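Tokens for chain A. Residues wanted.
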């Protein structure tokens, strides 16, 4: 019996000693906390989306605290977040242009069709692995909702075969941009401007057969724009937001109606 008690006491003593050593080591070897970075992290939304260009909110907070980054890069946080961070850093907040995601495709089931029936996993990424996707247009939205699934703000919904973004809810976190396997979602400024809602780069004759709302690269929009905001490259038009004055000339002249006003 005495032997058992001695063994128990010995084990308990060793445990206490090891615990004491670990406690002392944790104090000696502890990494000093950056209080400024922690305050900034509390001001950030915690989306960890990477829209700021850093690994996540903690990475952005650390860079801000070290003076290696500028306030105003957090799109999900918006202007209120920028002001809060700027106050912690003791710098001017400046202006932050609101942005939103847009789906550059009008390929609903009214305008295009599927080239095959798909019964696999409800995922655009999965469908891409089978014959390059299921839509007739190889550039168009497949409507299986990968973008909708990653959106934490309920800003994206698939309707009639194509995804749409509610710009009032969108926080421009870029998660939908990363989730789209066809790369047809873009982050643009929330401003009065024209948008080309198509990503097709096929020649006009091919596009007409695939989608009634696809850009055919006719350059009528480019010629109509007096500001030089519209350019056609590889049979697809693009509007430069900084140059667009929302005059509507490109919208009115587009024969395919694939250029719309921002809304």
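Reply:
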């Amino acid at each position: 019996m005495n032997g058992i008690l001695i063994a128990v006491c010995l084990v308990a003593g060793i445990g206490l000693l090891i615990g004491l050593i670990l406690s002392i080591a944790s104090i000696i070897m502890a990494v000093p906390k950056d209080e400024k970075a922690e305050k900034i992290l509390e001001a950030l939304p915690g989306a960890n989306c990477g829209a700021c260009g850093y690994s996540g909110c903690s990475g952005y907070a650390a860079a801000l605290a070290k003076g290696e980054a500028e306030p105003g890069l957090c799109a999900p946080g918006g202007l209120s977040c920028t002001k809060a961070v700027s106050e912690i850093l003791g710098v001017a907040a400046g202006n932050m242009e609101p942005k939103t995601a847009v789906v550059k495709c009008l390929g609903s089931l009214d305008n295009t069709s599927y080239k095959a029936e798909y019964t696999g996993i409800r995922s655009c990424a999965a469908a891409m692995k089978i014959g390059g996707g299921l839509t007739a247009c190889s550039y168009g939205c497949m409507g299986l909702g990968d973008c909708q699934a990653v959106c934490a703000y309920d800003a994206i919904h698939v309707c009639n075969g194509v995804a749409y973004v509610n710009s009032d809810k969108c926080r421009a976190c870029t998660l939908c941009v990363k989730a789209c396997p066809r790369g047809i979602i873009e982050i643009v400024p929330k401003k009065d401007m024209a948008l080309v809602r198509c990503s097709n780069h096929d020649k006009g004759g091919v596009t007409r057969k695939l989608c009634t709302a696809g850009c055919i690269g006719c350059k009528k929009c480019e010629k109509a724009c007096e500001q030089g905001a519209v350019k056609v490259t590889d049979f697809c038009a693009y509007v430069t937001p900084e140059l667009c004055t929302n005059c509507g000339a490109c919208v009115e002249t587009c024969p395919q109606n694939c250029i719309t006003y921002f809304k």
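The CA atoms of residues 12 and 209 lie 81 Å apart. The chain has ten helices and eight strands.
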